[in-house]
Amino acid sequence: MTTVYFATNRKPDQSAIGGFGADIVANQPDAITYAVAQVTGTDLAQEGSGTIASVDDKSMGGFSDAATKAIIAAGKNLLVFIHGFDNSFEDAIKRAAYNREWFAEGGSAAGDTTVIAFTWPSKGELFAAPTHTSPDAYRGDQAQAGKSGYHLAFFLNELDQLRADYRRANPSAKIFLLAHSMGNYCLQAGVQYWFDNRGSNDLMFDEVILPGADEVADSFERLGGARLSNLPKLAGRISVYYSRKDVAMYLSTTLNLNARLGFDGPSDKRDTARYPLDKFRIIDSTEVKDFDPLVPPDATHQYYRRSKIVRADIVATLAGRPPVAGGLISL
Fold first, then answer.
1. What is the domain extent for residue 274?
2. Structural domain tally of the chain?
3. Which of 237, 211, 235 is nearest to 309 (CA)?
4. Strand 2-8 with 33-40, pairing
5. Residue 140 phi/psi, 5° resolution?
6. What b/e readout covers 177-211, taking b as 16+ CB neighbours within 10 angstroms?
7. Can you tell me the distance from the alpha carbon of 177 to that of 155, in angstroms, rounded to the nearest whole number?
8. What does the mean pLDDT of the chain come to?
9. What is the CATH number of the domain that holds 159?
10. Whether pLDDT at 124 is above 90
């Protein structure tokens, strides 16, 4: 059984598996639900595996005292996960559990984490059929991700408060952020709101991992604190994984009419003054071939959790032993 601590700005929906649907709550901090899910049956050979056995300890506006104490007492590194598009609530929680187990199996104690997910209200309808993608579903998810910036900023505030007690109890432990796909669109909105309204430059994450980022390619290069330009202030190091074979990035580029961070990396990725090697790892994953690229239809967008090569690279980074900047680990 895998424990997933989570926050969500999805409205409760008792007809949906897990009890949360795809509508967004009001812009109020106490409208965000914090809770604990238990996931059973996660099978690393089956990436869609797992069942939400329970969702308990619900608290509005912040984790309960019991959940906070349990997170701290576990003594493990923390993995904060923001999912991408095409994820129902059930999908998001199961994926968080899968990622926790996937990285824990990676051969390093650093990858054995306590997972905390933020799940925003994606409908999970982008890939409606094996050969069909829905532009309307994509645009709907993108709109919800952008609107979630307010809620994500208050989730970051909850993490920031938890971080102080966590580090006192676990001074050598680390906090990681993994944002996949459109989770980066949500992240940029949250980071921008955070700095516009709070202004804290506290180092919140030791490592930030951004695979298949469905966000504009020049997000880190925007002026005035826009988009992801302030994220480096919160992170010890940022690893951007991209692939020119990512099917979702083709769709995103077509619909957004601009270059995407997850397709060919940042716009000025070769500028080491803008992207210093001690702060950024920018990793080309285009030629990774250790998984079936056709099954399921979005397989090339899920390489971070389908490829053992990419997984090993991420785990090495979490352990503080990443390969040379710009290159994947060699297995």
1. 2-318
2. 1
3. 211
4. antiparallel
5. -65, -45
6. bbbbbbbbbbbbbbbbbbbeeeeeeeebbbbbbbb
7. 13
8. 93
9. 3.40.50.1820
10. no
pLDDT in tens, 218-263: 999 999 999 999 999 999 999 999 999 999 999 999 999 999 999 9
72 domain-assigned = yes
Q: What's the confidence (pLDDT) of residue 199?
A: 62
Cα 223 to chain center, whole Å?
24
User: pLDDT over 70 for what percent of the chain?
Assistant: 95
Cβ-count burial 31-45 (b if 16+ within 10 Å, e if not): bbbbbbbbbeebeee
238 vs 209: CA distance, rounded Å: 6
Q: What is the pLDDT of residue 330?
A: 57
Kindly give, in sequence order, each residue whose CB lies less than 8 Å from that of residue 78, ignoring residues fewer than 6 positions away: 71, 113, 114, 115, 116, 166, 173, 174, 175, 176
Query: Is the pLDDT score of 156 beyond 60?
Result: yes
Residue 327 belongs to a domain: no
pTM of the model: 0.96
For 32, list phi and psi in degrees, rounded to 5.
-80, 130
Q: How many residues does the chain have?
A: 331
In a domain, 105, yes or no: yes
Q: Is residue 331 part of a domain?
A: no
HSE-CB at 125 with a 13 A cutoff on CA atoms is: 13
Q: Which residues lie below 8 Å from residue 100, measured CB to CB, with a gap of 6+?
A: 2, 4, 79, 113, 114, 115
**Per-residue confidence (pLDDT) for residue 47, from 0 to 100:** 82
Mean pLDDT of 59-67: 98
Within the chain, where are the H helices? 65-74, 89-104, 135-147, 149-169, 183-197, 247-256, 261-264, 303-306, 308-318
